[in-house]
From TrEMBL:
The lineage of its organism: Bacteria, Pseudomonadati, Pseudomonadota, Gammaproteobacteria, Vibrionales. Keywords: Membrane, Transmembrane, Transmembrane helix. InterPro entries: Transcription_regulator, YdjM-like. This is Metal-dependent hydrolase. The keyword Nucleus does not apply. PANTHER family: HYPOTHETICAL MEMBRANE SPANNING PROTEIN, MEMBRANE-BOUND METAL-DEPENDENT HYDROLASE. The chain crosses the membrane at residues 23-43, 63-81, 93-113, 125-148, 155-173. It comes from Vibrio marisflavi CECT 7928. Pfam families: YdjM.
Length: 344
């Protein structure tokens, strides 16, 4: 989730249990500690572009790391501001722990993947209930947090926490409706999916990206889940087969190893870019949810030495056509949609 949302949610939980005289400082502790786990983005390597993918949302986001991470935050913040405001270290640690503890659970509500149970497993948990950026989620929390701070009333913070729980719950219902529509769509196509997932599109829980996997392909569609369900048929792509698609690539090369690292990060959803044979894309994410314009990829080199890493690339499809296609889906433009009242 974006840093602002992480911060205001952490501040809200800290304020919700705070006494009136400590409400502002509790919110500040929760705000800063709520953003702290994302300091893992500083773990980078110039020679290994994928290193940050391995460590982002890893140990700093583990539920088992909350006592350690919040303690480190408390040590720093107590010395910096806690003592001056009359807090005991126990209070500083409590407010830090509440803020820090919200971070990983909120990230797990998105579709990126969070290693909640590290070091016991490196499984990436993604509950796919809200987008990584969603103003409809963030703004009510921010407004209620502002009222709590200005009015010195923790009840506003408690209402913020109630909204923070309610919105992903609605997202879960929307996700499940999308999945139901996806199974019906696959059945109409006479496909038997090996797995099928629904992910919220950018900044909303109304339009969803539907991905299902068959033996040799990934199929990408969009679903608008409003009063009625509307399907936007999309594209399909062959699953990456390294020996078939990249026969020149040495099995013991670092690039081959990096493909497998990228495969793990992408939960297996990788394919060869139709526009570039040397680019491997993560098919899970795109601005227009029924298209394959990936937001990130790795880049291979046929002339690279055996110990050279792949490149990592990000892509921002912000063309007017893409924006319009997305907005058409968001507002349910009829000529682009195939209404499916039977799955409502």
């Amino acid at each position: 989730m974006d840093p602002l949302t992480q911060g205001v949610l952490g501040a809200s939980l800290s304020q919700s249990v705070s006494k009136k005289q400590h409400l502002v400082i509790a919110g500040l502790f929760g705000l800063l500690a709520g953003m702290a786990p994302d300091l893992d983005v500083l773990i980078r390597s110039e020679s290994d572009p994928l290193l940050f993918l391995e460590f982002h949302r890893q140990f700093t986001h583990s539920l088992f790391f909350i006592p350690i991470g919040s303690f480190l935050c408390a040590v720093f913040l107590h010395q910096l501001i806690g003592k001056r405001q009359g807090l005991t270290f126990k209070q500083s640690w409590l407010y830090s722990a509440l803020g820090y503890g919200t971070h990983a659970l909120l990230d797990a509500c998105t579709s990126y993947g969070t290693q909640l149970l590290w070091p016991f497993t490196n499984e990436r948990f993604a509950w796919n209930t809200i987008s990584a950026i969603d103003p409809a989620y963030t703004l009510p929390i921010l407004i209620l947090l502002a009222f709590a701070t200005l009015k010195r009333n923790s009840w506003f913070a408690r209402f913020a926490i109630l909204w923070a729980i309610t919105y992903p719950t609605i997202g879960m219902i929307q996700r499940d409706r999308t999945i139901e529509a996806g199974w019906q769509l696959a059945n109409e196509r006479q496909h038997v999916p090996m797995r099928l997932e629904a992910k919220p599109s950018f900044a909303n829980i109304l339009v969803w990206k539907l991905i299902y996997e068959t033996e040799n392909h990934y199929h990408i569609d969009a679903v608008r889940v409003g009063r009625v369900v509307k399907l936007y048929p999309g594209e399909s792509i062959s699953k990456l087969d390294v020996s078939r698609d990249l026969p020149w690539l040495a099995a013991n090369s670092q690039q081959t190893k990096d493909i497998e690292r990228f495969r793990h990060f992408s939960n297996g959803y990788i394919a060869q870019d139709p526009a570039d044979d040397l680019r491997i894309i993560d098919v899970r994410y795109s601005i227009v949810p029924n298209q394959l314009n990936a937001l990130w990829s790795i880049k291979l080199s046929s002339s690279a030495a055996v110990d050279v890493h792949v490149g990592y690339e990000t892509h921002r499809d912000s063309s007017p056509a893409s924006r319009q296609a997305f907005l058409d889906m968001l507002f349910g433009v009829e000529q682009l949609a195939q209404k499916q009242s039977s799955v409502d």
